[in-house]
Amino acid sequence: MRDWLIGLGVAAGCMVASWAVLVLAARRLPPGLLRDLAAFVPDCLTTVRRLRRDPRVPRRARIAIVVAGVWLASPIDLIPEFLPVIGPLDDIVVVALALRYAGRQVPRQVLLDAWPGEPRLLLRLLGGR
Fold it and tell me: What is the pTM of this model?
């Protein structure tokens, strides 16, 4: 049991470290594609938090957004977080799908108001409408 708890602690520590690297990279990198990619996950978390509280968001969209937020916060992933570059890939896909779903039910301006990052990234994610 002790070994299992140590392993769980190490995995949680790796996950927190990878998130810290993403946040640090998002703040330190020069503007460009690499910075946008590093900032994507933290921007998604902020957007999930803001949309969850917004009364203009319908219940179905709010549920999808909350599920995506829980998926992001969960240490259980399809692709382990400690794998460089591809670790957060499943998180990005889940959040992108949830935001696209919400984008069909929520006015675009509400989503743009909740998005802390570069608006063109969110507009590209949502596609034309």
Answer: 0.61
Angstrom distance (rounded) from CA 39 to CA 22: 7
CA–CA dist 117, 123 (Å, integer):
11
**pLDDT value of position 22:** 66
For residue 112 the two structure tokens come to: 């743009």
- Is the CB of residue 77 less than 8 Å from the CB of residue 18? no
| Measured distance CA(110)–CA(126) in Å, rounded | 13
The per-residue pLDDT for 52 is 85
Contacts of residue 99, defined as CB under 8 A and 6 or more positions apart, other chains included, come to 44, 47, 65, 68, 111, 122, 125, 126
pLDDT of residue 27: 66
Question: From CA 43, how far away is CA 78, in angstroms rounded?
Answer: 21
CA distance 24 to 4: 30
